[in-house]
Design brief:
The complex is a heterodimer of chains A (about 100) and B (about 270).
Chain A (H helix, E strand, L loop, with lengths): L2 H6 L3 H19 L5 H16 L7 E6 L6 E6 L4 H10 L7
Antiparallel strand pairs in A: 1-2
Chain B lengths: L2 E6 L7 H14 L4 E5 L7 H4 L10 H5 L5 H4 L1 E2 L6 E4 L12 H14 L2 E5 L6 H8 L3 E6 L3 H17 L1 H4 L5 E9 L1 H5 L6 H8 L3 E6 L2 H9 L3 H4 L4 H13 L15 H6 L6
Parallel strand pairs in B: 1-5, 1-6, 2-4, 2-5, 6-7, 7-8
Antiparallel strand pairs in B: 3-4
The chains are: A alpha+beta (about 100), B alpha/beta (about 270).
Chain lengths: ~100, ~270
């Protein structure tokens, strides 16, 4: 433990304050309302599903709620045309979910 | 084979979430595959203590209700890649947690991890009973203080009656984790002694975690103390506790008493 770390050790409260402010700003905004990021995520996946059948577990969603911006990262494995057709035949119920 | 651990206490504010994060991280730092699961539906905090609060997309309820697959809800720790978090829901209420759903999720987690550490909510209601339901091992977090010891006793009774293992007539391993231990106050006789707590609760001691500024700092920064300040006495106590959970036999160290500047200057020392 050197002198610099001794001083830096006091710095955790401002970090805590900032983390809480960002978190609570998001949480307060979403109480009783739907979360914009959640809505976007649902609708984006619905749009893709309209064109290709996708499997829920092949969708990876990453989120970083920040201030002033948040990022929403949706990673969808889109099967090739042939594979998509086969998938549709195999499991017609999955299409469009 | 996977081990399901419940971190429980009955009483609130004794250090369950902090200990879940620190023990989970310590095990993962020892190359174990670990998931920490928040059972405090509606009042989640493990995400905050783990520093993953901005990254929550899906939660335990989404998985229980089939709205998301387990891999989608698991959040991989950015510092230790053998550590994952399954957050609780912040907006739903506790009734959304069903016994069947929890059983299914725990079974699925058993296939993926070595350790499944369930952070129980305070109290003895549904959330707490579901968190302990599938436990093989319980970590009973207790402060050396009368109301905490009483509540721990109540929880120990529930572990022996209401868990799946107990119902099958099997034994559930129980360990005492003494937290917020203040060496100076203990030596002045102001706090219940470790031996007293052990004698009253009569379960083996997993560790003694000193009350320390590193633990508070860990929550502030969202880095479990074993990651943030791995050389601090609190982190060392958690590392040792993790090794004991893995079956090693280690002597429990009583944290040294912290002495104030005044007592250092004047050499006043309470008799231990």
């Amino acid at each position: 433990m050197n002198l610099i770390s001794m001083f830096r050790r006091r710095d955790s409260a401002p970090v805590a304050r900032e983390r809480l402010q960002v978190l609570l700003a998001h949480e307060r905004a979403f109480i009783g309302k739907s979360d914009l990021l959640a809505v976007l995520q649902e609708e984006i996946i619905a749009v893709i599903a309209k064109h290709v059948s996708i499997e829920r577990e092949r969708v990876q969603i990453k989120l970083d709620r920040g201030d002033p911006i948040s990022t929403l990262e949706i990673d969808v494995e889109v099967p090739s045309a042939a594979a998509a057709a086969a998938l549709r035949e195999e499991r017609p119920a999955m299409a469009g979910t | 084979m996977a081990t399901v651990v419940v971190v429980t206490s009955g009483k609130g504010g004794v250090g369950k979430t902090t200990s879940t994060a620190a023990l989970g991280a310590a095990l993962a730092q020892q190359d174990q595959n670990v998931v920490v699961v928040d059972f405090d539906v509606g009042l989640r905090n493990l995400d905050l203590v783990m520093g993953a609060e901005r990254r929550v997309v899906f939660d335990l309820i989404n998985v229980v209700q089939g709205d998301a697959k387990l891999p989608q809800a698991l959040i991989r720790d950015k510092r230790i890649d053998t550590l994952s978090l399954l957050p609780a829901s912040q907006t739903r209420d506790k009734d959304a947690l069903t016994a069947e759903g929890v059983t299914r999720v725990i079974d699925e987690l058993r296939d993926r991890f070595d350790w499944i550490i369930c952070d129980s909510p305070a109290g003895i209601e549904r959330g707490a009973t579901l968190a302990m339901r599938h436990a093989d091992t319980a970590v009973v977090v207790t402060n050396p203080e009368v109301s905490s010891v009483r509540d721990s006793d109540r929880i120990i009774g529930m572990l022996d009656a209401k868990t799946a293992r107990a119902e099958k007539g099997e034994r559930i391993e129980k360990h005492l984790l003494l937290t917020r231990y203040d060496g100076a106050r203990a030596s002045r006789g102001e706090m219940l002694k470790t031996e007293d707590v052990l004698e009253i609760l009569s379960i083996p001691l997993l560790g003694i975690i000193p009350e320390s500024e590193e633990v508070l700092r860990a929550s502030n920064l969202g880095a479990p103390v074993t990651i943030g300040t791995p050389n601090s006495p609190a982190a060392k106590a958690y590392f040792d506790a993790a090794r004991r959970l893995r079956g090693e036999t280690l002597v429990v160290k009583v944290p040294p008493q912290r002495r104030s500047i005044m007592s250092r200057l004047f050499g006043r020392r309470a008799v231990a």
